[in-house]
Amino acid sequence: MPILEVEHIRKSFDHTEVLKDISFSLEKGQVVSIIGSSGSGKTTLLRCLNFLERPDKGVIRVNGKTLFDAEDPATMQESQIRKKRLHFGLVFQSFNLFPQYTALENVMLAKELLAKEQPDYKSRKKEILAEIKEQAETLLNQMGLSDRMNNYPHQLSGGQCQRVAIARALALQPDILCFDEPTSALDPELTGEVLRVIKELADQKTTMVIVTHEMAFARDVADHVIFMDDGCILEQGDPIQVMEHPKEERTRQFLSRFTQE
Amino acid sequence: MELILQQMPIVIQSLNVGFLQTLKLFFVTLIGAIPLGLIISFGSMSKFRPLSYLSKFIVWIIRGTPLMIQLLIVYYFPGLVLHNPIWGGGEAGRFLAASVAFIINYACYFSEIYRGGIQGVPVGQEEAGLVLGMTKSQIFFKITLLQMIKRIVPPMSNEIITLVKDTSLARIIALQEIIWAGQAFMKGSQGISGAIWPLFFTAVYYLICNGILTVLLGRLEKKLDYFR
Question: Which of B124, B150, B226 sits opposite A96 (nearest CB)?
Answer without folding.
Answer: B124
